[in-house]
Amino acid sequence: MLPTIAMATGFALILMGLYGALTHRNILRMILGFTIASTGVNVVLVSVGYMPGRTAPIMDSAVPVADAAARVIDPVPQALVLTAIVIGLGVTALMLAYAYRLFRIRHSLDISKFTELKW
Amino acid sequence: MVSAIFIIAAGLGAAFLLGLLKEDQKASAFAITVAALGFMSWVAYDWAVALTTGRAAPVDILTAGAEPPFAINLRMGVAEAWLATVIGVTGLVSAFYLRPALMRLGRRAMAVLLVMTMALTGLVLTRDIFNLFVFFELVVIATGGLVLLSDDERAVAAGFKYLVVSQIISLLLLIGIIFTYHANGSLNIDDIAATPMMFTGAGLAIFLVLIALMLELKPFPANGWALDIYEAAHPGFAAIFSAASGTAALYAADKIFAAAGPDWLPLATVLGLLSFLGSGVLALKQTNDRRLLGYSSIGQIGFVLAVVGQRDILGESYLYIAGGILITHAVAKAGLYWLSGLVKGRGLDDWAVLRANPLLVFAFASFVAMLVGLPPFPGFYAKWDLMHALAGSDRLVVLGLILLGALIEAGYMFRWFGYALKREVREAFPGFATDKTAVVLVALAAGWALGFVWGAASANPNLLTALPILFALAFLVLEPLPAWAKNILAIAGLVGWFVWRYPGYDPLQMIFAVVMILGGAVILLASFYEKGRRIGFYPPTMLMYAGLALLIEAQTSFEFFAAWEVLTIGSYFLILRGRMGEPHALSYILFSLGGAFAILAGFAVASMGVQPFALDNLKALAEAAVPSAPWVFVLLAVGFMTKTASIGLHIWLPGAHAEAETDVSPMVSGILLKAGLFGLFILLMNMGHQHLWGVDLTEVLVWIGALSAFLGALMAIFQEDAKRLLAYSSISQLGYALFGLALMNHVGWLLAMMFVINHYIYKSMLFLAVGGVYKRTHTKLMYKMGGLITLMPFTFVSVLVGIIAMSGVPPLSGFGGRWLFYNAIMASDLRLPMVLIFMSGPIAFLYLFRLIHTIFLGQLKDEHRRLKEAPFWLVVPQMIFVLALLAFAVLPGMALQKVDGYIGSFFGDEPLIWSGRAITSTFGHWNPVAIMGVIGVVFVTVLALLLWMNHNAQKVKQFNIVFSAERPFKPQTTHFAWNFFAPYRKAMGFLVMPLVTTFWGAITDSLHSTADFTRRFYTGNGQTYAVQVLFFVVATYLIAMGGAS
Amino acid sequence: MTFEWIHIAYAALTLFIVINYGMIMTALVRKIGARVGGRYGIPIWQNYIDLAKNIALRSKITHGVMYYLGPVFRLTGGVGLLLFVPTIYGSVMFQNFSYAGDLILALYFVFFGTLGMALGAGESGHPHSAIGVSRGLAQVTAAELPLALGVYAISLQYQTLNITEIVAAQQGSIFNWTLFTNPLTTIAAMFAFVGTMMRSPFDVVLAPQEIPIGPPTEYHSAYLALMQTNRVLFPVAKVVIYMNLFFGGATNWAEFAIKVFAIYMVSVLIGVVYPRFRVEQSIRFFLKWGLPVGILAILTV
User: Fold this and answer.
1) In a designed cystine with C22, which of B312, B680, C111, C236 is the match (CB 3.0 to 4.6 A)?
2) Within-domain flag for C92
3) Cβ of residue B9 closer than 8 Å to a chain A Cβ
4) Cβ–Cβ of A48/B178 closer than 8 Å?
């Protein structure tokens, strides 16, 4: 049940984020939309790796290495999420930097104003 | 061997190292960057060579000390090594190219370049899908950084659009990856099970991964963002973006396609072809050079994607084919982007400044040839093999669409090349930066080297080791020599080749060799007239002759086709040299390439994918009555008829021949057209009668020949331009030859053979004569001339002999053609097409008379009173031709008797009896010596009589004529020349409505308007682009699944 | 058959007979025309008078080499045409040089003189010459078409291009003539015959009644004499071909004289009845009437 809810939430976030990013003309709002969407993706990622009734994949005294395979959840998605978050941060930062430069050029953050390149 | 992991490590390490430097240590930062990139390239290249030569075996590089799937692994195989080399070298060379920009922006920019190169290499090497994602994101970030290198402000917006779309792609990719992992329990590509294309979870997951990777390939039409980058980014970066990024992304997609199973390949095929054709069409309307290159990039990547879609049938040759196209594209596109950095203006015609440096023009030409897949570059071999594989597996639609796409691409690339060569240079030339030029030349050298490598690796002969081609290429090096020296060499080469080769020729080859090779040498005599160095004339000329020389000797379909392409390229450059040659050269190359592709398709279908395919096998195909045989016949015939300019495919000819230079016109008219006839000879000799839907295709050819003969002649009589008149007359003459061939009887073939010789002689002679007149009068319009007979007597004689020969009036050799013609049609069952031929004979008379009358007779114009005879070197070959014509007229058996016997061995008959100098056929007889004798004696007698009576006639001045009770004083109003056949136009003008031109014009127009309409789809708004991408994904999914279920 | 010197003498004899016959016949035709029109007409030897007068003319000019050669080409064309065709069937003396070539040679040699004369006239610089040539060439392309088709048809019919063989096939009875065995072809060819005899309604090329036009415009003296000679020789040579192909040929000079006169009169009769066509009208005429008959002829052989 829990992973299903998590996954549904994740997808809902993705859709919300995309909707926001694709309907708002303000560049900052678009970036925000993408952030929400990538959060949603991260939730989906985690929910895929979740197995009911198991513990975190940390090998300490509570979970001996010997029976780890049976007791911990799949660690791979979690590792992926960590990486994805880092990358997401990088991309978001780059987009913000772009937003800044775009604003300096035209004193506007309206995406529909930057269409000199077309056709 | 250095482990491939060090490629990644060096890139990352150097990038970090740069962070330790001070901001102002720019020179050392650049040195580090270059060193790192050099190291990365070297490692990759080392592997590539080792793996290719078999010194090393492919290795998996494990990380984190564990086997996959518990750790990421990289793989270094042949493909990976070569692609990593391409990426590394592109990065390295780009670093030099980007040097000013990098120095301006400092070490951070250099670090980004390193990361970019490293990440792209990672994309190629990795075997882990999540790792793939990570490298992708690195590429995205690095791209975002490098876009900012541009001086163009608009690049910022372009970069942002790119990031927006990248966000969506990474969403799709991540979701796809996680569910693929969920389904397979592993992130390793090799563990991904082949998944059928269905509405299942696993199916959707793999679809998401695939579509995300394909979106990275900027598929048409979801690619507005990429085009903006191409247009606005620094050309140095655009080169990386196109050559390296495109290559890496494509290989990434290829890896997943390999894993996903053959079910998914149609997806690649369809999307690839859509991109190839779609961006091709849209590119037609582009005026910005870099955006055009962007479209071309997208198209080429689409092409390779379509090849990826064929990997199930390509087997072992997959790497050779896909790699060939991919690498050619990478080199050519990088080269072109680098070139664009040398050109200041952004319009296509701004590239005219390249003319300041012939080497750069050569580079441009080479890059265009690479993109279009012309020999001797890898794309040519790859395309040849690809087409055979496709034909072997009956994927004819794919085959057709790929060729169509290639033709469209050739259209806009060659148009552009034409601009560069012929348009005015609008602004003062600032000089080219040496380092940037050097970078372009590196790409040029790489392209040629790759051409050699691919040729050597090909199962077919390596074109770059063929002696004639090498000889032609040598003229590139000899360009600094004066024209006369090169001319001597060229003539010596042609004659030498002929003398060396002719003992091995059969009579048919012999005739063509005499006309094409020796004939070429005779025409080249005229080139002694040109002074200076004549840059750019000899390489294409000799390339054309090389192609012709190879064509005659071709044994296999590959040799034939390669020779065909070579002679097409050579002649294209020659035609383009004409003063107003630009549009005509373009239509020439388009028709020729269209024809060449038809030939390619024909050979591919004929061979059923089995190489090498000897030309003689066509016979077996026909004898076995394979269902595809008539189609092969149609394709090959259409291909050959583009060269003979048969009606419907003729519109390129008048302009191409008329606008060419004085000594080029006879080459392309007298010689080049015969290549088409040679092809038709081979075709008909081997395949004979073929029936399609109950229609005998040779009868169709008879009709086409007759129509060409008739309409060509009719169009010729209404020309005011002397060279155009001759050009239209070529259409007509070649129509006769086609007609004779297609009659499929002994005498008909002999007739065609006779036309090969005759048309070569008199058309070359007439073109040279008219060219000589043009040199003196500076006009080709006949009504502006008149009365030149006394000023240019030699030229007059050659025109006189030429028109008597061509019109078929006894005693000259044209009559022999007519006589054979009647004997040929008597032996045929066809009746109606003869009506057209009967009519075109006298019509030829009309235009020929007009030619000689309006130029040499009538009233001399005031401005021409001081003209001299045509230049000596133009007259020399004409006089040789006059003698040849006379000799051929008296002794036709000299050339024809052997051919007659040879043809007899095909038909098994002996319709002509050669007794002494007389020839007897089943129906009639012909005694050329007697004819000449009777006419000669009568003529001399009558002349003597007249001299006896009128020897004291007084020579009078020009205006000593009286008409309508006024005395003329102005040559302009007295010379009857313009619209010479006005009544004829009234009666028959409706037959020369330019229907064919309108037809082809409508096709190109509709392509252009489609392009103009469709490209408005790219609104320029980043958000719209993002929406388009999403729609594209959904639509693709629905269609794919709909297609699969 | 090979060349012997005596052939030259035979050929000269043929030529002599034909020229004199042509002189008198064309004069006779003009005289008949005059009598029909209620005039007295010319004396029968008028052609000889004209010839002598022209040759004797004292003022002689030339516009250049080609101009000078024009009449030579013209007469060579006429003489050659006559000599390449056997005149009298069955006679050894009057086979001429027909071994040099067959029907096709005759067909194409017709243009030899035309071309040369047109070139010569062109050099005179007189626009009327050029206009006449332009008209003549334009008209002949359409007018010759039915003949070409007719020739094709009869060579199919007789399966030979050899004129002697064609004549041989027509011997025996009048109903063996092509005229009766293949009337369509004969009609087609007669279109061409009427169209190329330089008589009304197809004589706009020379327009003999008004301002002089066409090649002879600038010619005079001996030049004109040569052309005049050709004017009487050439039609006869042409009629000989028609006679051989369609009307059974001639086995002796009497038959020759009658047949040539009769065939010649066809064009004369049509000429006096119909008014002149403009060039484009005559082209359309031949395409509309001559061409279909010709096509029918080759389809029905």
Assistant:
1) C236
2) yes
3) no
4) yes
Q: What is the pLDDT of residue A53?
A: 75
Q: How far does the CA of residue B101 sit from the closest CA of chain A (Å)?
A: 18
Instruction: Give residue B307's pLDDT.
Output: 93
> In this predicted model, what pLDDT tens digit does every residue of B700-719 receive, in sequence order?
999 999 999 999 999 999 99
> Average per-residue pLDDT in chain B?
90
Residue B916, exposed/middle/buried by CB under 10 A (0-12, 13-18, 19+)?
Answer: exposed
Domain that holds residue C75: 6-300
Q: How far is A117 from chain B (nearest CA, A)?
A: 6
Confidence of residue C203 (pLDDT cuts 50, 70, 90): confident
Identify the three-state secondary structure at position C88.
coil
Q: What is the structure's pLDDT at C1?
A: 61
Note whether B835 contacts C: Cβ–Cβ < 8 A.
Answer: yes
Span B619-640, average pLDDT: 89
Specify the long-range contacts of residues B710-715, CB closer than 8 Å, at least 24 apart: B710/B735, B710/B836, B710/B837, B710/B839, B710/B840, B710/B843, B711/B647, B711/B991, B711/B992, B712/B647, B712/B650, B712/B840, B713/B840, B713/B843, B713/B844, B713/B846, B713/B847, B714/B840, B714/B843, B714/B988, B714/B991, B714/B992, B715/B654, B715/B992
pTM for the whole structure: 0.92
* Residue C17, domain member (yes or no): yes
**Over the stretch B936-949, which tens digit does the pLDDT of each residue have?**
999 999 999 999 99
Q: Is the pLDDT of residue B568 over 80?
A: yes
Judged by CB atoms within 8 Å, which residues 256-295 of C form the interface with B? 278-280, 283-284, 287, 291, 294-295
Assess if residue C86 is contained within a domain: yes
CA angle at residue B624 from B618 to B626, to 5 degrees? 80
Taking an 8 Å cut-off on Cβ atoms, the answer to whether B810 and C83 are in contact is: no
| Residue from B105, B143, B164 to probe the interface with A (highest A Cβ count within 10 Å) | B164
Average pLDDT value for chain C: 90
Q: Which amino acid is at C219?
A: Y
Structural domains counted in chain C = 1
Q: Do B926 and C99 touch (CB under 8 A)?
A: no
CB pairs under 8 A between A and B: 119
Domains of chain A: 2-52+68-113 (1.10.287.3510)
Give dist(CA B1021, CA B1014) in Å, integer.
16
Residue B195 has pLDDT above 80, yes or no: no
Instruction: Name residues 988-1017 of chain B within 8 A of A (Cβ).
Output: 1015-1016
Residue ranges per domain, chain B?
1-127, 599-939
Could A114 and B157 be called an inter-chain contact, meaning their C-beta atoms sit closer than 8 Å? Answer: yes
Q: What is the mean pLDDT of residues B359-365?
A: 92
Instruction: Look at residue B1045 in the predicted model and tell me its pLDDT.
Output: 62
Is C1 a domain residue? Answer: no
